[in-house]
Amino acid sequence: MLRNRYSGKSAILLLGTLFGVSCAMALGIDTLDVTSKDRTFTVQMTLEIAAPAEEIIAVLTDYRYPDRLNPKVTKKDVISSTAGTTRVRIEFRSCVLFYCKNVALTQDVTVVAGAIHAETIPEMSDFLSGSMHWLVSRSSNGGSHISYLAVMEPDIFIPPFIGESLIRKRLRDEMLEIAKNLESAVSNDPAPYTN
Prior knowledge:
alpha+beta
């Protein structure tokens, strides 16, 4: 009986190890840097995902599932779509320590040849300025190489006890979660790519 219990634990440990290795092989984050200066935050990330670029672009531009990549997103609406630009409003709940705030972000999003560019609309957002760029290209191993760059200047009160270092850590954690969710979404249910 005792031996069977240990065999079961060993099997669980082995399966967990194998699952971890397969995930690590499918998703490889090369760099993830979050910096700040004068309340402006910059996020840079490069990663590899074992999926075609078209499927990754399709998931990144699929607005039907608000929390698919980031569970903090509570609402995502397409406001308008004209001449290759889609205006999207995102609402999310941002928490650092015990301080939480509902935040709105409206962006004009364009997609051209493996690149997604989003420009913040300050008068419709809780941000003074901001932009986001995804560049998805085919990698040598048949998957995709992804470069991400975002610059944002929030227009909300940040309590002094929180500080920029805690916000940088929170942004870093969220980007790791988004990268994992992107890999999972692409491998489980790739959306059709429409441009």
